[in-house]
Each structure stands twice: as structure tokens, then as C-alpha cells.
Amino acid sequence: MTTKQPSSDSAVKHRHRPEGPQRHIVVFVFSVVLTLIAFAAVAAGGINATFAIILLLVMAVLQVFLQMGFWMHLKDKGHMLPIIFMLGGFFIAGTSIIMALYWVWWD
User: Fold this and answer.
1) Distance (Å, rounded) from C-alpha 31 to C-alpha 36?
2) pLDDT for res 8
3) Per-residue CA distances from 73 to 15, 30, 60 (Å)
4) Who wins on pLDDT, 104 or 9?
5) How far, in Å, CA of 50 to CA of 28, rounded?
6) What is the dihedral sign for C-alpha 47, 48, 51, 53?
7) b or e along 38-67 (b: 16 or more beta carbons within 10 Å of the residue's beta carbon)?
8) What are the tens digits of pLDDT across the range 32-85?
9) What is the predicted pLDDT for the residue at 99?
10) Taking the CB of residue 8, how many other CB atoms lie within 10 A of it?
11) Phi and psi for 68 in degrees, rounded to 5?
12) Nearest to 54 by CA among 104, 101, 62
């Protein structure tokens, strides 16, 4: 009986562990909670308008990171090019908005 010896070319391969639904469920629940908090902040009406706007913007940014990281799988390897293009788009859009506001309110 002969036994196969592993060749020096074959390295130990690490198996990719499937993600499973657990993380997606947690992220979905977190997204729903953020949405409910935003709805409650606006529906309550007793909150300062500036605080409500800041709260909504912070929760919107959190939602964007959650959506892109988990639902669009940008947290996985091999997605650097789409991330670079999106960051470039965010930079151009942000610069355009800032310049438009500056242009409108500049005396």
C-alpha cells in the first residue's frame, strides 16, 4: 500500500467560511432600528430641528455604510476598484454641493 505524500507545491489551503444569514439578520435588524429611531425623532415633533437634522444625517451615514458593507458585499476581498470609484463619486458630489452652496450664498 502506498501513501501519497503531499508535494511541496501544495500549500495548506484555508477554507472560505460561508457567511450565513446571522450577520445579515443582525444588520437588517440594526437598519430597521435606525429607521424607527429616525421616524420617531421626526414624528415626535418636540425635538429641536437642528438636533433632528443632525441625528437624521448621522443615521443616514450609518445606513449607507451598513448597506454597502453587508448588502453590496464591499467588505469582501476584491472590491477595491468599486470602492475607489464610489469614493471618487462622493468626493465630486460633495465638492459640487459645497461649491453650489458657496456660489448661491456668496456676496
Assistant:
1) 9
2) 52
3) 19, 17, 18
4) 104
5) 28
6) positive
7) beebeeeeeeeeeebeebbeebeeeeeebe
8) 998 998 888 888 878 888 888 898 999 998 888 888 777 777 777 777 888 788
9) 94
10) 6
11) -70, -35
12) 62
Query: Which band of pLDDT confidence, cut at 50, 70 and 90, is reported for residue 25?
Result: confident
How far apart are alpha carbons 45 and 48 in whole angstroms? 8
Retrieve residue 13's grid coordinates. 489551503
* SS3 assignment for the chain: CCCCCCCCCCCCCCCCCCCCHHHHHHHHHHHHHHHHHHHHHHHHCCCCHHHHHHHHHHHHHHHHHHHHHHHCCCCCCCCHHHHHHHHHHHHHHHHHHHHHHHHHHCC
